[in-house]
Amino acid sequence: MRSLPLPLALTARLAPVAVLATAGWALSSGPDTSPAAKDKAPPDTTDRSASAPATQAATRTYAAAPVPCESLAGKTVTSLVPDAKADGKELPSTDTDVRRTCSWNALKGYDYRWLDVSYEVMESDEAARKSFKGRVADRGGGGEVAGLGDEAYSVVNLTTEDKQQTREGTVLVRAANAVVMITYNGSDFESKKAPGTTEINKGAIKAAKEAVAALQDG
């Protein structure tokens, strides 16, 4: 295979990912500030439980983000991103307990594929719910994905730059206090066309199902 210089579309794709990896995902809301239930017993400061805050924190379903590069089976990676290394590359994060992302990308012949799996663990289900809804609002034109997490949404978009098409699918999933985001895209640098909507959407949803299962398995 002859050496193929990557087009400007790919260069533009790489730059924002590096910025995102450095900055990390921004939390959309602060910690839960709901008041604790009042004690029915007469006030007695000597009998107050010192473990109450720990009990509240323990209600979080997920305490930390899983290892993202271990979230997908090797055969899934090679089917979605041919010629990519199965172990992927974890992107830098400002706080790996809260947010982690793994990326796979490869060029096989003239076909290019890129796949990201990202996790963000928040302080409460409500915080995750607000973040999920905000992200969905920023990505109109998609639809719900049934049976995935507590709520899930997928959307596929086509972009063209320098006559090169790129089709990208995004799947967002909320599972309790965690948000999982899958980004999957592809281009054909010979035909200048992009893979079909169904191929990209199905690939992104397949990756999302495995990523959520990895989160639930802890």
The helix tally amounts to 5
Distance between the termini: 42 Å
Low-confidence stretches: 1-58
Mean pLDDT, all residues = 82
Helix-strand category = alpha+beta
Helix content: 25-40%
Largest sheet: 7 strands, antiparallel
Beta-strand percent range: 25-35%
Radius of gyration: 20 Å
Large-scale geometry: globular
**Strands of the largest sheet, in order across it?**
1-2-3-7-6-5-4
Give me the count of strands: 7
Structure description:
This protein is of the alpha+beta class and 218 residues long. The chain contains 5 helices and 7 strands, in the order αααβββαββββα. It has a 7-stranded antiparallel β-sheet with strand order 1-2-3-7-6-5-4, with helices on both faces. The chain is globular. The model is unreliable at 1-58 (pLDDT under 50).
